[in-house]
Amino acid sequence: APIEMALDDVVEVEFTPAYSAMPVRVRAVVRNRSRYIYGLEFQAKDAVEQERIDLIGQLLRGSSDFRKPK
After folding, report:
1. Where are the alpha helices (DSSP H) in the chain?
2. Among candidates 35, 34, 37, 43, which has minimal Cα distance to 11?
């Protein structure tokens, strides 16, 4: 069901990467919206959360290098 969110609402977004049993969860702020389509800004509170945000960015870009060690 659609959820109504306002600008500047803080939400948690969870993704389960392909080939992974572990979901990735990060905080985000609603920065823009059009009906039920939202633009989110991911915000890290520490280095671990920044790594999660980087992983989500790679997943959204369709990158497969998220499984490669750095």
Report:
1. 47-60
2. 43
pTM higher than the cut 0.70 = no
- CA-CA distance, 15 to 21, in Å (whole number)? 10
Burial (CB count <10 Å: 0-12, 13-18, 19+), residue 26: buried
The three-point CA angle 28-44-36 to 5° equals: 10
pLDDT at residue 66, as a whole number: 47
- In tens, the pLDDT along 9-62 reads 999 988 787 777 788 888 999 999 998 899 999 999 899 889 888 877 887 777
